[in-house]
Task: inverse folding
């Protein structure tokens, strides 16, 4: 289910390294007691509890626009939702896409602060309905994509 392979993990380099064993993710996933395995594996790992943090928090965002299988994203989401029900330390929040009005306000804000290609056009992009419709369509009203397309 992974994309990363190494001989130190599997001698024949056929099995991917599980996400919870990748150094970058290992501590964060252990702190939240998340699992990216199948449902059968999740039931076995149900005894894991999130670590109590004295200060700070871990914020995780998932998206469908990266090269991670839907199955992995869904299993992480299920694991987090299970933790959300069992324990008040893990909170699952769904952040929806921006509405059409919100996108227009964000673009106007980008134009005011002079961000990217909106810097020198003196409001031409924000006042052009076709250009705004294109930016909405190309970004899918997703914040990071809207920022990316406004900068390029």
Result:
């Amino acid at each position: 289910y992974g994309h990363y392979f190494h001989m130190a993990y599997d001698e024949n380099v056929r099995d991917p390294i599980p996400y919870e064993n990748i150094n970058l993710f290992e501590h964060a996933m252990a702190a939240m007691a998340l699992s990216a395995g199948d449902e059968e594996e999740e039931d076995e790992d149900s005894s894991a509890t999130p670590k109590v943090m004295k200060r700070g928090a871990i914020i995780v965002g998932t998206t469908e626009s990266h090269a991670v299988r839907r199955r992995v994203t869904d299993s992480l989401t299920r694991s987090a939702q299970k933790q959300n029900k069992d324990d008040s330390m893990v909170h699952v929040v769904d952040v929806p896409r921006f509405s059409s009005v919100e996108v227009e306000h964000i673009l106007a804000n980008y134009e005011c602060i002079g961000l990217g290609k909106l810097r020198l056009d003196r409001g031409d992009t924000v006042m052009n309905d076709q250009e705004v419709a294109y930016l909405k369509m190309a970004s899918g009203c997703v914040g990071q994509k809207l920022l990316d397309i406004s900068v390029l």
